[in-house]
Amino acid sequence: MKRSIYQVVIVLIAACSSLTAHAQQEGDWTREKAVKWWASMDWYRASDVAQPKKRYDAFGRELENTAEDSVARPIVNAGLKPDPSVNVVEFAKQYNANPSRWDKAFAYLKTTDFSTIQPGRYPIDGTDVYAVITLGPGKSPDTTLWESHRNYEDIHYVISGKEQLGIIPLTQAKVLQPYDSAKDLAHYTAKGKYYVATPGTFYIVTTEEAHRPGLKANGYDGDVKKLYIKIRKS
After folding, report:
1. Has this prediction a pTM greater than 0.70?
2. How many domains, in total, are found in the chain?
3. Is 36 among the domain residues?
4. Partners of 167 in beta bridges
5. Do 170 and 211 contact (CB within 8 A), yes or no?
């Protein structure tokens, strides 16, 4: 009996130690530390290693690699920069929880010639990382809502054209349509800041933010070709 109690105590101590270590790890990312890490751009340069080429059929399905496809892909979208609107603390946590997924996402962003790719969905790493390319005119405010996700973080990049993209902390948004797990989507009403998204700058939207993409930019009536990269949250 005494031995059983002793074993239970040992298990409880071990569990508490594990929880404490996890809490300490989560708490390591202070804003000061995250800002410094973000400014270093090491998280972006880590994906500079050229990636194997990928080919897709007309339905966006990845084709089997050949010897020719194994040739390393050069960086074709040099000079891209991240917008500083990102929630650096949350991004630091998510990137460092699974850098491989983020590195694949950034490598795709850097090495893909988007001028030759048609709208559709393209796998990058199965369903853990994938891209969606859209093409069409900007939307009017009365046809769009603020939204958020719980399972995926987003990278938004306007390939050509111009749009308005709203981003706001989730805590400042009021729930309009509760979270739908099947769609990984919730909708909100909010008054937030809008950014004019153009080629050359990409936006990172974490699950701690609501966003309102695809709005028509003032003075621009043309089509917008846009890339969304979805990265599964760890």
Report:
1. yes
2. 2
3. no
4. 193, 211
5. no
